[in-house]
Amino acid sequence: MEIQWNNSLATGVDTIDNQHKEIFARISALISLDIENIEPAKKEAELHKVLRFLGGYVLDHFKTEEEFMTKYHYPDYDGHKKEHMDFLKSYSSLVRMFEKDGATDLIITATQNQAVDWLVKHIKVTDQKMAYFLKPRMSKT
Ligand SMILES: [Fe+2]
Ligand SMILES: [Fe+2]
Is 141 helix (H, G, I), strand (E, B) or coil? Predict the structure, then answer.
């Protein structure tokens, strides 16, 4: 599995693209972990770091997008917001699993898959659709 930023993920709104790039960078650090050969303590620390990052930074990122949508009266605000909420729901269940069982390979793989699948899909479909609406309106202000 790979997670690399590339232009097909660009929305054209710089603030949003820069935040997406940061998210990708952190997740790719988790993905590049060689879980078969890493010490358990390091595994634990790495997963903890990524989960904390996702909980903080991703939440702020969602807020940024939601503020833009509100400011420019984006018509599909509710649908977009719901996807953000769905991500946060699955994120919380990963955190609960981690708190209960520690950094098992299952949780690491689930975090990788969930983060990658969800993000790529959400950015390519939902965020790009939003940015297409926002861009011409933002350049007027
Ligand atoms: Fe979004
Ligand atoms: Fe986004």
Answer: coil
Say how many Å lie between the CA of residue 3 and the centre of ligand 1: 18
The answer to whether the CB of 31 falls within 8 A of the CB of 2 is yes
Distance CA 94, CA 62 (A): 19
pTM, full prediction: 0.89
Digit-coded pLDDT (tens) for 61-89: 999 999 999 999 999 999 999 999 999 99
> What per-residue confidence (pLDDT) applies to 26?
85
Ligand located closest to 83 CA: 1
Helical spans, DSSP H, in 6-139: 14-31, 40-53, 59-71, 77-101, 105-121, 128-138
pLDDT value at position 84? Answer: 97
Q: Which domains does the chain have, with CATH numbers?
A: 13-138 (1.20.120.50)
Round to whole Å and give the CA distance between 51 and 29: 12
